[in-house]
Design brief:
Strand order of the largest sheet: 2-7-1-8-9-10
Number of domains: 2
Helix content: 40-55%
CATH superfamily of the largest domain: P-loop containing nucleotide triphosphate hydrolases
CATH topology of the largest domain: Rossmann fold
CATH class of the largest domain: Alpha Beta
Radius of gyration: 22 Å
Length: 350
């Protein structure tokens, strides 16, 4: 029985989608597979319990019969961390819990897929991803982003953290077109000369790189004020807290962005509506914009939504929606399956 732990050197690299896609491919090949996420980090409240959304999605998509306490033996919540710091969690007991859950899930399976929770997450009680790989004797797939040449340092640091003896390979995911050639021609040969196998370069896929305006509005509980299309994709945010002229210059340099600003800042709102890369406006503080701004938004086809929270809280919540919202459903995983088949050495990964 083989085990593969999928980890990443940063957040929002597509780790969940890749883990579930590989498990799906292995399952399609008539292999019996198991899945677990030893540390539940993407938490939500569910029927009175705090659980990780990723194992719940895996349970549904892969048809798993396992119980949630096995799929997610450690709920890595702020409460758990506090208990660790106060000396109320025993490291050996926690590791035993993970090991026993793994053994139960792995029984009679051809391959186990483990979704990591972070290279550093869990260090306080010796359950970082490298520790877990050693605990269950798993090889490791490292998922990395690549946007500039400096990122090579981060990749090598992550490889050293994992240990080269356990490294199955590196997959670069969501690679922008502008750096794809540099990565393929220069960086990959450099890494392979350093003994780091690169098993995939997956290009950026727009539909996996953000959330729609409608999804963002739903997650924020926003009141949508315009009757225009809500299918635009948002990948980033721009906070309108400066003068109108400076704001317009900044907005024009961004793309696929939501502008978050106070509902009383008509000057910022008007400037945002002049920028082609702005996909929607999120107005904070419960303030509705003027009729002139609403009319201009309708003319430009730019959605405007209002939330009751302040700007700082809204920015934090919106960024969290985009960060964790990419692996949402079966279609997302199916898209990743095709991307891996076309841009990665799936045989090497499995």
């Amino acid at each position: 029985m083989k085990s593969l732990l999928v980890t990443a050197n940063a957040e929002s690299t597509g780790k969940t989608a890749i883990t579930l896609a590989l498990a799906s491919i292995a399952q399609e090949r008539d292999g019996s597979i198991g899945y677990m996420k030893p540390k539940g980090t993407r938490l939500q409240s569910n029927v009175g319990k705090t659980l990780d959304e990723d194992p719940m999605l895996a349970k549904e998509l892969l048809g798993l019969d396992a119980e949630m306490h096995e799929l997610e033996p450690v709920v890595y919540s702020p409460t758990f961390i506090q208990q660790v710091v106060r000396g109320r969690e025993d490291a050996d007991e926690v590791r035993k819990r993970i090991s026993e859950a793994f053994d139960s899930l792995a029984a009679d399976q051809d391959q186990m897929f483990l979704e990591g929770g972070g290279l550093s997450t869990g260090n306080i009680i010796d359950i970082a991803d490298g520790d877990i790989a050693e605990l269950v004797d798993a090889e490791v797939l490292l998922v990395c982003s690549y946007n500039r040449i400096n990122d090579v340092d981060e990749v090598l640091a992550a490889v050293d953290d994992i240990g080269r003896d356990r490294l199955r390979g590196v997959v670069f995911n969501r690679v922008p077109d502008g750096v794809y050639e540099e990565l393929e021609d220069d960086v990959v040969p450099f890494l392979e000369k350093r003994g780091v196998p690169v098993v995939g370069i997956v290009p950026r896929e727009k539909h996996l790189a953000g959330v729609t305006v409608q999804e963002l509005a739903d997650e924020l509980g926003a009141d949508v004020l315009t009757d225009v299309a809500m299918d635009g994709f948002v990948e980033r945010f721009s906070v309108g807290a400066m003068g109108a002229d400076a704001a317009l210059r900044g907005f024009r340099r961004t793309k696929d962005a939501a502008v978050i600003t106070g509902g009383d800042r008509a000057d910022i709102q008007s400037a945002a509506l002049e920028a082609p890369g702005v996909k929607c406006l999120i107005l904070t503080g419960g303030h509705r914009p003027s009729g002139a701004v609403l009319g201009k938004a309708a003319e430009k086809g730019v959605p405007i939504m209002v939330v009751q929270a302040n700007t700082i809280t809204t920015v934090e919540r919106a960024e969290d929606v985009v960060r964790v919202g990419r692996t949402r459903d079966e279609q997302t995983v199916e898209t990743m399956v095709e991307l891996l088949r076309n841009h990665a050495d799936v045989d090497a990964l499995l």
